[in-house]
Automatic annotation (TrEMBL):
Record's catalysed reaction(s): 5-dehydro-4-deoxy-D-glucuronate = 3-deoxy-D-glycero-2,5-hexodiulosonate
Similarity remark: Belongs to the KduI family.
Gene this chain is encoded by: kduI
Cofactor note: Binds 1 zinc ion per subunit.
UniProt-recorded name of the protein: 4-deoxy-L-threo-5-hexosulose-uronate ketol-isomerase
Cofactor(s), names only, from the UniProt record: Zn(2+)
EC class: isomerase
Pathway terms, separated by semicolons: Glycan metabolism; pectin degradation; 2-dehydro-3-deoxy-D-gluconate from pectin: step 4/5
EC number(s) stated in the UniProt entry for this protein: 5.3.1.17
Amino acid sequence: MEIRFQNSPKETSAMNTASLRENFLVQHLVKDDSIQLVYSHYDRVIIGGVKPVNEKLVLPNHPELRADFFLQRREIGIINVGGAGSISADGETFELNKLDCLYLGKGMKEVSFSSNNADDPAIYYLLSAPAHMNYPNRLLNKEEASPAVMGAQETSNHRTIYKYIHDAGIQSCQLVMGLTVLSEGSVWNTMPAHTHTRRMEAYFYFDVKPDQRVVHFMGEPKETRHLITNNHEAIISPPWSIHSGCGTADYAFIWGMAGENYTYTDMDPAPITELL
């Protein structure tokens, strides 16, 4: 498990491209028959990718957690962005199709991941945060996630938002999680941008075509930077940073947050006309 520490706005403003990518871009999350994890000291969130192809994969414990098992003091949200698969938690099995979400509460001792078909394996993206109490495990498919259509073709941001883990959906201690799918011909996400100093955020880009990219914008509203991202790459977004993206074609991304306030609408606007 890779460990990443926090960076201040002042420190970040002086970074070159290589330093920005080293600190905020998470690559190589999705590998065949592997679980890849990154521990961020922004709200102690763990970002992960799981791709079981030929074998069942078991969520490992890590000495850095100083825990008897991974979810001893944590909760986890998992979204499938690949083929059909299943997740087992302490003997209970959940079937996940593409874009389905599973929440597992604190205290689950053994979690394993499988694919139904090795030729079309499941790809699970996970986000885990510390938890102070136990909430029930819950599976929510994309049709149940109250999809909301936002934006317009005229502004190149016509998109569908699926909200899974939030104050009016799956209950959690502090996790918020959902995803956004851009319509064909639309490329902008989360613009106008915003910040929320009560919680960090992570983006995971998927369904990015091999010859296309997404330009992710970050930084303070008056000190913005950008990162070029590829398919199945994630961005760690500090609480003080905007988080927005523009693709060279349509794409999708998972957004996830953790921190003091898990109300989905808690945002501090950063108007387009004030960005620098």
